[in-house]
Amino acid sequence: MSTGQDAGRNLGRDLSGAVVLFHQAVAARLGLSAGDLKTLDLIATEGPFSAGELARRTGLTAAGITSVVARLSAGGFVLRETDANDRRRAIIRAADVERPELTDAFAGLGQALGSVIAEYDTAEQAAIVSYLHRVIAVLRDQTIRLGPDGSSG
Hints:
By secondary structure, this protein is mostly helical. Helices cover 68% and strands 8% of the residues. The chain has a single domain, classed as Arc Repressor Mutant, subunit A (Orthogonal Bundle). It has 6 helices and 3 strands. The longest helix has 27 residues, at 4-30. It is globular.
């Protein structure tokens, strides 16, 4: 029997691999990479951001985030606007455009995951949701830690 740490390592690797491959499949339908798609998702759900803050949140370098934003802008996914408070700074926000490919892919995923969680009782569902929120927080912290300004970068 493996230890909790071994199980966490293996489960984490398997989960992250499945998530990355799912996002790559969705991104390919839009002509993007998985990283571009997740950056777009971050901008759409938590933005707008300055380029510097977006680089910090994604773990990318300034040059890397500039390339991602250029691709997203060229595809009509994001808008670059001048910051009203500091005209030297750009603010990146999601374009208000409906993308049926995204809506359909994530609706299907949501339905499938809803079916899985429905198999558990209320207390188990609460534990699963709590666990997933904590995993997400750990992943976000580790992304920043591994970025160019993090302690391991």
